[in-house]
Each structure stands twice: as C-alpha cells, then as structure tokens.
Amino acid sequence: MASAPNPLLEELGLHFRRARRAAGLSQEQVALRANISRPRYRDIETGAAAARATTLVNVARALGMEMMLIPQAMVPAIQSMLQPATGDDDHPAFTSDVEEEHE
C-alpha cells in the first residue's frame, strides 16, 4: 500500500526543482554534484521519498543554496524578506539579478 504524500517533502522538492531549473541544470547534473543517483534525486525533487539531512544539505549545496535552521519566532521576518520588492521586478527585496551584476 502506497503511503500518503507528505506536504513537507513535496514543498522541499518544489524548491529544489525551481532552483534547478533557474540554474539551467538537469536532474543528472544536480545528482552528480550531490553525489547521489539521478533516480534518488528525482524522488527527492518530486517529494516521493524522504532523505537524510546530509543528503538534503548536499542537494541544496549542489544547487548553490544553504539549508538553515531558524527559530520559529523569526519565520515571519524571514518570509517577509523573501517576498518580492514593491518595485518593478519580481525579485525578493534582498536579491539582485546575477546577470545584471556581470554586465
């Protein structure tokens, strides 16, 4: 019998998928960088399987991200920082377009 989907795993996988696509990487490339198999990465990205914390950290780093634990009381402040700025673009307030920096 198949287990019920885990919303937390699905959300984490969605973040990984968005980061991978934004970086223009294939699942195979991320898996290679994270030192896991492509099927294993696919399962993590789709939320189909849980993974060890070390594996998730390796995947995040393969995508140029860092996983962090923050106090629950700080979550609203962090989330507000991640919202798009009120300017003309859709970037969070604290980021800039990488390509713009290199022009």
Fold and architecture overview:
The protein is mostly helical and 103 residues long. It folds into 2 domains: 1-69, 434 Repressor (Amino-terminal Domain) (Orthogonal Bundle), CATH 1.10.260.40; 71-103, no CATH class. Helices cover 55% and strands 0% of the residues. The protein contains 6 helices and no strands. The longest helix has 17 residues, at 7-23. It starts with 6 loop residues before the first helix and ends with a helix. Residues 96-103 have low confidence and may be disordered.
Write the layout of secondary structure elements.
Blueprint: H1 7-23, H2 27-34, H3 38-46, H4 53-62, H5 75-82, H6 98-102
> How would you state the average pLDDT, rounded?
85
Using the coordinates shown, work out and report the CATH topology of the largest domain.
Answer: 434 Repressor (Amino-terminal Domain)
CATH class of the largest domain: Mainly Alpha
H/E series, N to C?
Answer: HHHHHH
What's the number of domains? 2
Our measurement of the CA-to-CA distance between the termini, rounded to an integer number of angstroms, reads 54 Å
The number of distinct β-strands equals: 0
What is the helix tally?
Answer: 6
Q: What share of residues are in beta strands?
A: under 5%
Give me the Rg, rounded: 16 Å
Q: In which range does the helix fraction lie?
A: 55-70%
